[in-house]
Amino acid sequence: MRKMNLPLYDMLLSQAEAEKKKAFLTIDLLANHPAGIGDHSTSDFYDNANEALEALASADDKIEALKRYFDIYAEENR
Fold first, then answer.
1. Each residue's pLDDT tens digit in the chain (78 positions)?
2. Are 2 and 69 in contact (CB under 8 A)?
3. Cβ atoms 1, 73 nearer than 8 A
4. How far is the C-alpha of 17 from the C-alpha of 70, rounded, in Å?
5. Secondary structure (DSSP) of 13-71
């Protein structure tokens, strides 16, 4: 395992978790509130849904990588 300081780890994890929440929100809006999409074409709808799924998978990958490959430490323990 590689070492990473806690503030950096927390920032990266928080960012990935926020990306995950944004992806879930986008998928929810597309699935349950399609009227909010407006004048977009069916192709736009599918593209947006696919982009949200890719963002979700990417966020999950980032979270998993942080947990798998990095051991965190506090600054004072360096």
1. 999 999 999 999 999 999 999 999 999 999 998 776 666 678 888 899 999 999 999 999 999 999 999 998 866 544
2. yes
3. no
4. 17
5. HHHHHHHHHHHHHHHHHHHH-GGGGTT--HHHHHHHHHHHHHHHHHHHHHHHHHHHHEE
